[in-house]
Please model this.
Amino acid sequence: MDAQLDQLRDEAIAAIAAAADETALDLARVKFLGQQGSLTTLSKGMKDLSKEDKPRIGKLLNDVRNAVTAALDIRKAALLADADKAAFAGVDVTLPGTAVSFAGKGSLHPITQLLDRTTAIFRRMGFALADGPDIETEWHCFDALNTPADHPARNEQDTFYFPDGRLLRTHTSTVQIRTMEKAAPPVRIIAPGAAYRRDEIDATHLAQFTQMEGLYVDEGVSVADLKGTLEFFFRELFGNDAKFRFRPHFFPFTEPSYEVDIKTSMLGATDRWLEIAGCGMVDPSVLEAVNTKRGDRAFDPEKYTGFAFGFGLDRLAMLLSGTPDIRYFTNNDQRFLAQF
Ligand code: PHE
Model:
């Protein structure tokens, strides 16, 4: 048995050293160490050995197994190193790399870019950033904004309601209320964020879109301030030749209310007015709703006036970039996104 073991070890080590690739090496492993391998077969002879021989041969068996295993590991590492070297053959690692194209580097989403730009413009005018939850109470979304229970905006067909009566906010005007609940005048905030409506999705509508809300409440705030602020803002975006029209409109929470139309050569069709925002002077009943909730007269409508506005960033992004279909902004198509 001693001689057999010696011979087996030498044979195995020679076969392993001769293995030219991983397949050959694996065959050698199976041949010597596998379940039907020669070493396994030899170990089965242990039971026929005398008591005195057993420990010595047992140790020898172990030594051979260890030696063969070690030889397998060493050969495997050598084969891997050879393969690495072969892969690098002919590659000059001192050459400069291939530049990554701009599209490959990635960039901010066009809506995010516009959001950053609009935020920067309003911050220069002294507007602070405010925030509110997407899941809202009916009170913050409607009642406090002077929107009675029978108003069409509250219809189940237009709004996503939860079983507990809460809803996905249909506009960011909710942040007007949330801000005034916590702060005292003067208040000058913008609130960008998602708004949700049960709209059929088409080229100009999404069920979730992005709004920018604004609110300024102080002593003596007038329609002139509202017009000046919005005109300045939209000129920053659309250029100095832009013309504006404040067209009378109705919102429950502002009085008077307007929609803002723009006409600019930047948008090509110079003879067409495009609606870009809703706005107006904060309705005294909104200030009173806030006072009632607060339990004080912090927003006394006899003393304070304010303006509010809201517009869709997706719509603006479409106009500014000449994008014909709003769904491009949510399709995640690299060919579209890489252009920004
Ligand atoms: N919340 C209105 C909308 O979603 C926009 C608006 C905001 C109008 C503030 C007036 C004042 O259409």
Summary: Residues 171, 173, 213, 251, 254, 278-280, 308-310 surround phenylalanine (CB under 6 Å). The two ends are 78 Å apart (CA to CA). The chain is about 40% helix and 20% strand. The beta strands are 128-129, 135-136, 167-168, 187-196, 208-218, 243-251, 254-263, 274-282, 305-312.
